[in-house]
């Protein structure tokens, strides 16, 4: 384990003005997104879509620090024969890889989820390193309601898996992104989201400590503290920023070099506005950035529509969203820039 290398990579992933593009949708998930634009999800179509993003300038050079890939994507070559991870690296970004195999019903509590994928992970990580990956991602899914979910059982099995994954990553000199996502699905209020998020993060860091994970070589990818999507009273931008920061200060050790927020189903503008509010007015021990999927890709996907004639428009849309979120990492975004 090379701690200096891990720490250097973790800091590069949150370089000021930059963030992470999550392009690690499973084949099933990307098929649903392609269906929304009337496009069949073939291997070639998936390659073309992602290659187009990875070749977008200036976004990839100036605003994207790393790209999370899917197993299929890290093995693919561009139309000209260049491996896709090489295109990412040539743009100055770091290739990464999703290594979990998805959230499945939790035995004994099937309404909750547990993320699987630890079997054979050591060997897969060694292969991914050879393919160019220098960081990895594992997502735990924590459902929440007004009082009963999540169960202690659900939280414990998920943070245990995250810790085992993280230790295996560091052993392979790959930075682990640990992602305990408290879902925004439901009608719970922001106070309930705060309560659950703080509990999950405290349990996570206890488990990482028990497993010997070196925090300086990790990245946290948490949800923001927000109201449930169906909550009749939605918290404002400043409330989300203040409560998220307070939650993180209470639960996340200062040794963690960077925090890259997930968008979690927020609108493009909300995800950017919330991040900006957190970076604009707070002096924090960690670098804050984004690790967005839909919040970076939805607009360019709609503009692309699966047609070569629309590549320029799609790349313009990606450039815009990357620029807006890059500014948000610096506290320099304004809503007037969206017009």
Structure description:
Keywords: Glycolysis, Lyase. It catalyses: beta-D-fructose 1,6-bisphosphate = D-glyceraldehyde 3-phosphate + dihydroxyacetone phosphate. Belongs to the class I fructose-bisphosphate aldolase family. It is an enzyme of class 4 (lyase). This protein is an alpha/beta fold and 339 residues long. It has a single domain (3-337), classed as Aldolase class I (TIM Barrel, Alpha-Beta Barrel). It has helices spanning 3-12, 27-35, 43-54, 59-62, 71-74, 84-90, 121-130, 152-171, 190-210, 237-251, 268-280, 294-304, 311-329, and strands at residues 19-23, 64-69, 94-98, 103-106, 109-115, 135-142, 175-182, 219-220, 258-261, 287-292. The longest helix has 21 residues, at 190-210. The chain is globular. The model has no long low-confidence stretch (mean pLDDT 96).
Q: Considering the protein shown, what is the CATH homologous superfamily?
A: Aldolase class I
Query: How much helix, percentage-wise, in residues?
Result: 40-55%
Helix count, DSSP H or I runs of 4 or more residues: 13
CATH architecture: Alpha-Beta Barrel
Structural class: alpha/beta
- Our measurement of the CA-to-CA distance between the termini, rounded to an integer number of angstroms, reads 47 Å
Number of domains: 1
Number of strands: 10
Radius of gyration in whole Å, from Cα? 19 Å
- Which fold name corresponds to the CATH topology? TIM Barrel
CATH class: Alpha Beta
Proportion of beta-strand residues: 15-25%
* Helix and strand pattern: HEHHHEHHEEEHEHEHEHEHEHH
Shape type: globular
